[in-house]
Amino acid sequence: MQSTKITDVTRRRFIAAGAIAGAGLAAGCWGRQRNSWMFLNENNARTLAAMCDQIIPADKFPSASEAGVLNYIDIQLTRHYRRHQKAYAEGLAHADSTSIKRFGLPLADASPNQQLEVVGAAEKNERKFFELVRNHTMEGYYGSPRHGGNRDAVSWRMVGLSEPPLLGRAQYDFTKGPRS
Amino acid sequence: MKSVNAVVVGAGAAGGIVAKELSTAGLSVVLLERGKWYTANDCRKDDLRNQRTTVLGNAFGPEDEGNPRVVVDSTGAAQVVLPSEGAYQNNAACVGGGTLSYGAQAWRYMPQDFRMKSIYGAPTGSSLEDWPISYDDLEPFYDKAEYEIGVSGDYSGTPFHGPRRRDLPMPPLPQNREFEILEPAAKRLGLHPFHIPMARNSVPYNGRGPCMRCRWCVGFACEVDAKNGSQNTVIPTALATGNCELRTECMVKEILVDERGRARGVSYFDERGHLQEQLSDVVVVSGCTVESARLLLNSTSRLFPNGIGNRYDQVGRHLQGHHYTGAVGFFDYDTYDDVGPGASIAIADYNHGTPGLCGGGMRANEFIRLPIHMVDRLPQGTPRWGAGHKQAMREYHRRNIVIMGPTQQIPSPSARVTVDASVKDKWGLPVARIEGNVHPHTFDIGDVQASRAESWLKEAGATTTARMAGRPSSVSAGQHQAGTCRMGNDPRGSVVSKDCQVHDIDNVFVIDASVHVTNGGFNPVLTIMAVAYMASDALVRGWKDSRFRS
Fold it and tell me: Does the predicted TM-score (pTM) go above 0.95?
């Protein structure tokens, strides 16, 4: 590598490829499937979706996962919430094993009532992990769509905010001094 | 590097004003700022990453990477904390400092706020003290700040304020729905509601347009540049003189001192991390309370082994902010009108004069809430998650009013900033260590103030209310941080003179909220600005007189 002169473009490509390979390796610890998630895998993404959808279930308005909350959490787990990666990997595995122990089914395949029971148990027994998921779900659902959640600003419309806002930018040019 | 007349460390509320005043008086100035210069385009409307909601980081600095602090809570446990965590007591790190993204309430303190010890006596264990200056000394400079920075509002509804030479330069913004609901209720209670003074254009002023009343206000840079801070007023003026050079992303390491005990400039890390020296005749420290104290304490030398200004172990003590208490009320009709900035109405009836309490504080309605702010602010008994929580979000987001306010904090000498040599920042400098707690009498005041907020909401027709009066386990500083380099006449009990000159070095000044003896029952920024104008005025006079060479 050191002796080969590579152009900027190829170097960038090489680094990008390396980053993907790295993510693949990390994901490999918890599942071998190649998938479209950045941190999650197809398995624990389903578990997380089940948890998030108990925290914000569907009614007249979409559930957490329908509004893109998983997308939000997945992205942030590779950015600002990198420090929570381990907690998520372990917490989701634990939630699944609780469900299997109680109902013989992974959380995602359990009935809504069974899922509610498992999430309720997590709130009592896995307090730290539950709080992470609860808070991140709220952020993904009620926070700005720019971070991958709150699809089409659905929660903002739900609470009765006009979106996009009705207020416009100031329409006057004041750069040449005040008009008053 | 060419020596200049003055180096100003920190381009915030105070530093910007000092740079402007000195450069317009003809002094050559270098203004050093550790953060970047953001503009209106950096508003971003990001409700998870701004300067108030920081779950995804601070929008306007410092970054989480490489800027730790050590915080000791009241149980004595020390913890390394990141800038986006609440315990860090962050303000901001950027050109404009806190004034880029603040809510911009621009209050004058009351005459009584400068004479707290004389009026109330110091509670046991506190360091309550009088300022060495009075409201009357500061009044011309309050006026100057209101006109140069630009403040809108209307004091005519209240008798509770000090004498003013004239009205504010701009009328208040038209009232929002919360104002309409709360004003008659306050009057029925015999109170004196009025329009909050705000460093925000309500009409075109200073070459910039008025507020467009959006919902992204406190914590955000203003998208239309209608919020007035040092970054869009005094700093551009300073730069336009040609006498002032602003250097961003420059972190000052220490104040350099010569063999005779005079400052000869500062050393700093430039934007590429290279150590530089900037020599100057005068050094002005305006780095904000915690960081200013840290810089003085990190500036050790043979003559000042404990740091500059710290001969009597005063630097870093009396750290204070504001203990915020209040109440939330829920209504059976829409109180929300989606009109920013939201905060609009205040009362100052309770700042002084309650028997048994050393002061009080103003009460005002809260800035406009985004949905994320409501998640944990729903009526008591609402489930924290699940269908019930979601339904309550729908039901109450448009139907709540929050009344809050700063409680006059009783200073304590044990609430302090020191430096922790075992933890270094990314430049290798010892970080600030924050310890102590607020004086317990502060909580007594805060509790009474919370009930008052609740009564106002009930009178306004709230169907349910809840008081918000916590007992934080660590000192309160945050955006309202003050007090670490107290102003006073006695060098044994203070760090700077009434002109903000460090007692034992003639050519070093501390000009920012560090010098506040007490912090009033109001948001502190206009007082920071007025003190900066006043101290700059003295500095320019001293410069012309002696150049601080004794």
Answer: no
